């Protein structure tokens, strides 16, 4: 039997687990794009836990969502959204974070987390590393398309922006993770 993941709002007490998932997901996702010294720094999970702890110590707000996924009490994914900061997409929500540990890829958990923080009936944007074919394929399957915007990202890399018009719903048979 495949264990079912619980998706729930993050709590302040989750900061260390969120930091650990965030750091591990970066290792699994960005190896080759981010310097190994950054990815393998033993202090990185603690730094990320501190960052998340500060964020979770403040009220998140009714227009922001930070959810986590757990299987048998172990955190395996995180997702966060909030208002887009892009002036050319007024009223859009922005997917700011979506990480699922590699062992959960293909299980549908990424789709569940995405849908837990973004309303499929509203305009949404996100920035994704380019190239990152797996992530870009996933977002395309969920109605996002590149809109031509790009920006420099850390470590001499770049991101592209993807946008999803409102009222998008998966079609029967669409792959969701």
Automatic annotation (TrEMBL):
Family annotation (PROSITE patterns): GNAT
Xref: Gene3D superfamilies: 3.40.630.30
Q: Name one GO molecular function term.
A: acyltransferase activity, transferring groups other than amino-acyl groups
Asked whether the keyword Repeat is assigned, the reply is no
Read off the InterPro entries from this record.
Acyl_CoA_acyltransferase (IPR016181), Bact_Acetyltransf (IPR050832), GNAT_dom (IPR000182)
Spans traversing the lipid bilayer: none
* One Pfam family this sequence matches: Acetyltransf_7
Q: Which UniProt keywords apply?
A: Acyltransferase, Transferase
- Segments forming domain N-acetyltransferase: 5-167
Query: What's the protein name?
Result: GNAT family N-acetyltransferase
Species this protein is from: Mycetocola lacteus
């Amino acid at each position: 039997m495949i264990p079912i993941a619980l998706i729930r709002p993050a709590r302040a007490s989750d900061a260390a687990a969120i930091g650990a998932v965030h750091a591990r997901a970066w290792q699994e996702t960005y190896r080759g794009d981010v310097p190994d010294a950054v990815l393998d720094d033993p202090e990185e999970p603690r730094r990320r836990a501190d960052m998340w702890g500060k964020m979770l110590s403040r009220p998140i707000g009714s227009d922001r969502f930070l959810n986590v996924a757990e299987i048998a009490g172990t955190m395996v994914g995180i997702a966060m959204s909030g208002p887009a900061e892009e002036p050319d997409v007024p009223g859009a929500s922005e997917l700011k974070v979506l990480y699922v540990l590699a062992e959960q890829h293909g299980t549908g958990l990424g789709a569940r987390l995405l849908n837990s923080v973004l309303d499929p009936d509203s305009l949404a944007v996100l920035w994704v590393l380019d190239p990152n074919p797996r992530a870009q394929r996933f977002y395309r399957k969920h109605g996002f398309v590149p809109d031509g915007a790009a920006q420099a990202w850390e470590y001499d890399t770049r991101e592209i922006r993807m946008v999803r018009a409102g009222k998008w719903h998966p079609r029967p048979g669409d792959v969701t993770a």
